[in-house]
Amino acid sequence: MDGLRDLKILYFSKDYTTHDRRFLAALAETPHQVYYLRLEQHGHPLEDRPLPPQIEQIEWAGGRGPVHLRDGPHLLASLKRVIHAVQPDLIQSGPLQSVALLVALSGYRPLVSMSWGYDLLFDADRSAVWRWATRYTLSHSAVMIGDCNTIRQRARNFGMADERIVTFPWGVDLDHFNVVTGDCHVRVRTSATLERSNAHTFTLLSTRNWDPIYGVDVIAKAFVQAAQQRPELRLILLGNGSQAGLLRQVFTRGGVLEQVHFPGQVSQADLPHYYRAADLYVSASHSDGSSISLLEAMACGRPALVSDIPGNLEWVEPGVQGWWFPDGDTNALAQAILHAVDNRERLPEMGYAARLLAKQRADWKKNFQQLLQAYEIALQTR
Q: Do 295 and 377 share a structural domain?
């Protein structure tokens, strides 16, 4: 890719998350000069690792706290000054209706817009204004990158030409998220020491934030139903969020609070141990592209029980890598949990299939090359 030598790339994102860290760390290994621009900064960090030292963070009007609609004109003027000073060869920016929209409004080209999944699956249908913002951003993008075919189809529905869409799963580090032989007795740090399942326990793991879109309340209610029938069930509930009070109330009223462990936010270094300490990964998310949490679980050799939203259907074949249940159906999820317990002898085989699929399709080191292909397409349009 001769056209990609020594580029100046401006990476502009809403916040600094694990996903941003993944992209920036990979870009830091290229010969390109990479600048990082952050729209917002919230009180609780979404990623605890620092920026790679090769990445230069740009100071500007944003990136100091939450952003509101009224801040738009001021931020747009500041962004134009940044673009004039940096003179980037391209800008990679997403989500679509916030940071990518600002770039589109600035008049800069070429824009490589990056869908974060929820921007097309959820935000795009909020109102006529959000639909306009989506169409405007895509129409002013040289390329859009997305992580699954569901996102690709949504972009096409909003007028994006298929040849200007590059689809690849963001993937995971298969060396970090892996299967450790003899790991059946690994211990993880929780509110109480929890040993990986044995003949007497069956452990479920949820890693999504406790916000309505991720359906953790559905998991909580289903776990109560299932645990009342099978007291050997345990649940590790990572993360935090707006539904913290509701979740504890559900567990307390159901009499299963002692069977649930709340480790909070855990580091990327410790996260693989939690996957390997569980028998089954569970996600009740109402909206997702290619869920990174799901791919991490599969890479660690864990079968998955997931809601039947389109993004999940691209990764889990029932009875092979795990199972589906109807999105939002608490009773169906409870029954699926009980079914998994009754068929626990099949889990090692399903975990092997999950790891195999992750190696075939979710290797970030391989998939990252498709981002560079997207850059090449964008530069050709310029």
A: no
79 touches 72 (CB < 8 A): no
Check whether the bond before 95 is cis (ω within 30° of 0). Answer: yes
List strands edge to edge, sheet with 90-94.
56-57, 33-38, 8-13, 90-94, 111-114, 143-146, 165-167
CB 309 within 8 A of CB 357: no
The residue among 267, 312, 303 whose CA lies nearest residue 285 is 312
Kindly indicate the confidence band of residue 55, based on its pLDDT and cuts at 50, 70 and 90. Answer: very high
φ and ψ at residue 290, rounded to 5 degrees: -85, 100
The rounded distance, in Å, linking the Cα atoms of 321 and 353 is 6
Model pLDDT for residues 78-107, shown as the tens digit of each residue: 999 999 999 999 999 999 999 999 999 999
pLDDT at 44: 66
Sign of CA dihedral 349, 350, 351, 353: positive
CATH number of the domain to which 370 belongs: 3.40.50.2000
In a domain, residue 177? The reply is: no
Domain count, the chain: 2
- The gap between the terminal CA atoms of the chain, to the nearest Å, is 16
User: To which residue do tokens 């480790």 refer?
Assistant: 263
Three-class HEC string of 345-382? HHHHHHHHHHHHHHHHHCEHHHHCHHHHHHHHHHHHHC
Chain-centre distance for alpha carbon 110: 26
Kindly report, residue by residue over 116-166, the tens digit of the pLDDT. 999 999 899 999 999 999 999 999 999 999 999 999 999 999 999 999 999
Q: What's the pTM value of the predicted model, to 2 decimals?
A: 0.86
Instruction: Give the pair of three-digit tokens for residue 332.
Output: 């169906």
Place of tokens 């919230």: 42
Residues 137 and 189 in one domain: no
- Structural domain of residue 334, as residue ranges? 183-361
Alpha helix (H) residue ranges in the chain: 18-28, 72-86, 101-106, 118-121, 128-139, 149-157, 216-229, 244-254, 271-276, 292-299, 310-313, 330-342, 347-361, 364-367, 369-381
Residue 111 near residue 93 (C-beta atoms within 8 A): yes
Confidence of residue 199 (pLDDT cuts 50, 70, 90): low
